[in-house]
Amino acid sequence: MISSLGIIGGGVMGEALLARLLAQGQVAATAVTVSEPFAARCEFLNDRYGVRCVDDNAEAAQADWVLLAIKPQVFDPAVAGLADLRSDRLILSILAGVPLAKLEAAFPHEAVIRAMPNTPATVGAGVTAIAAGQQVTADQLSQAQEFFAAVGRVVTVPESQLDAVTGLSGSGPGYVALIVEALSDGGVAAGLPRAIATELAIQTVRGTAELLQETGWHPGELKDRVCSPGGTTIAGVATLEQNGLRSALIEAVKAAALRSQQLG
Ligand SMILES: NC(=O)C1=CN([C@@H]2O[C@H](COP(=O)(O)OP(=O)(O)OC[C@H]3O[C@@H](n4cnc5c(N)ncnc54)[C@H](O)[C@@H]3O)[C@@H](O)[C@H]2O)C=CC1
Ligand SMILES: O=C(O)[C@@H]1CCC=N1
């Protein structure tokens, strides 16, 4: 159980983590302070989750655990003056691109974890990669793993891999949403009503992911199992190859990883 949690930035990811941590009983609402400059957003978080929401990062940063959930672009002003408030907190950052070196320079006396979750965290189906800073103990690392396990799977990676993680699983829900939308468009183009097309597209992506996860099959093996000789799937696959689906996705992950590096 987390004794006290401060969340700096009550946006999409701050709320996703907050909601799941509360639902899982990892922290009590009375032990959470969110700092968020938008008054309407603060009111919403307070009404919905019963947490204290303030417009003062220093108040949230008094907690034992501090989650940084602001945009990388506002990192410097958002953390200014927070370092000297305490010297024994566990600082968790989910900021894209911001390296441990920069986080540790901002919180020089403390244990800092850099993490990259993703939006399926909202429904507990996320995946988070974490990398530990120099002052993190084995105990703190396992506490951080438990923290992010509240929103899905957790992998621990060397920090050098976190920009690539961001390009793949951090940004990936955006790519998959585009794929689902496009599959639904294809269904509509082929004559399906929109609602049915979207339901089929979502369940096909979900079912395929579950099948791969449960069987451990190589994705190529699954593709081969779906493709009947001279059948429909190979006709579709050939069209995707002609239109560069694979290289488009490879380039997307590389571009997002590069952007993550630039944000740091
Ligand atoms: N959205 C996503 O899918 C993911 C985002 N991230 C990272 O999570 C972080 C937050 O992203 P989102 O939640 O999507 O952004 P967001 O824009 O929804 O939330 C950021 C919140 O910070 C508040 N804020 C702005 N300036 C502030 C300040 N000086 N002090 C305190 N709060 C301030 C904003 O009002 C906003 O509510 C980013 O660093 C992003 O790289 C990581 C993984 C996935
Ligand atoms: O687009 C972004 O910068 C953030 C980081 C990963 C997902 N969303």
UniProtKB/TrEMBL annotation:
Pfam families named among the record's database cross-references: F420_oxidored, P5CR_dimer
Chain positions recorded as NADPH binding sites: 57
Pathway: Amino-acid biosynthesis; L-proline biosynthesis; L-proline from L-glutamate 5-semialdehyde: step 1/1
Domain called Pyrroline-5-carboxylate reductase dimerisation: residue spans: 159-263
Residues covered by the Pyrroline-5-carboxylate reductase catalytic N-terminal domain: 5-97
Organism whose genome encodes this protein: Synechococcus elongatus (strain ATCC 33912 / PCC 7942 / FACHB-805)
Name by which UniProt lists this protein: Pyrroline-5-carboxylate reductase
One Gene Ontology term, aspect cellular component: cytoplasm
A GO MF term: pyrroline-5-carboxylate reductase activity
Sections of the chain in a coiled coil: none
Protein purpose: Catalyzes the reduction of 1-pyrroline-5-carboxylate (PCA) to L-proline.
